[in-house]
Structures are given as C-alpha cells and as structure tokens.
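Aim 2 progress update. The chain analyzed this quarter is reproduced below.
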Amino acid sequence: MLLYADILHYSMHFIFIVLIAYYYDKNKWKKAYLVLLSTMVIDLDHLFANPIFDPQRCSVGFHYLHSYPAIIIYIILLIIIKKHWQRLFIIGLLFHIFTDWINCLLM
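Predicted structure tokens:
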C-alpha cells in the first residue's frame, strides 16, 4: 500500500499538474506547468520540523505552510487575486495541499 501511495502522491505533484497546466492555458501550458511546479516551494516548511522528513507524518495541519490557517489564507487569496499567473500559483498551492491530504488519507 505504501508504494502505491508514494506513486500516486508524486504523480499528482509532478505529472497530474501537466493536465491542470494544459487546461488552464492551452497556449502557454509549459509556463503554466512551471508555475504549478514552483508551488513545491511550500515544502520548505519541512526544514523546520524535527525530523525534517517523517514518512508517517501528515503534512497537512502539521507544517506551517500546510497549516489550516495557511489553507484559509490560500482560499482567500484565490477569491481576491484575479491576475492570471498569480491565480494559477494559488491554485497550485491548493492542489499541493490536496495532494498531501490524499497522501494522509492513504497512510
């Protein structure tokens, strides 16, 4: 089960976002993919945890940028921000959280 969860998790982080990028902007899907890929920056909050990586720990609700207050801020920003690429970045953050949440459910 763990291998299946890992494959699904990393596929959602790196492969599924290609579909989101293409759907979001068919003409500039490569740029959209890079914007979505850049949302992996929120995983820097793992550096403040001890241990930095724990395969049995759920990121959602534990790390600062994966916390529930942060998620609320991302949702508010999604409502407020209207600029094309900034909005895609926020969508990417929320999809990143969703991906991590799915991983938590499979643990």
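The mean pLDDT is 93. The radius of gyration is 14 Å. These observations will guide the mutagenesis experiments scheduled for the next reporting period.
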